[in-house]
Amino acid sequence: MTDAGVRLSEVVEYLDDFLRIREVADEPNAVNGLQVENAGTIDRIVAAVDASLEAIEGAGVGGVAGTLLLVHHGLFWEGNV
Length: 81
Fold this sequence. Notes:
Elements: E1 6-7, H1 8-19, E2 41-42, E3 44-50, H2 53-59, E4 67-73
Parallel strand pairs: 3-4
Antiparallel strand pairs: 1-2
């Protein structure tokens, strides 16, 4: 990784392929993959189970440019509405 970070599109493409999101069946209303993007580069990855306000604030996503928050339950799934 360089000081400029890694392109978000490269990480998303890798994860979509690795996790086979287009091949593995999920709940009909599931929205898998990138849900909210940043300016286009990432410098660090933080993981959480849910994309809750607590997880977002705790990861520093709003205050740290280049942070990718990787979650199991994204913003758009039936359990979060």
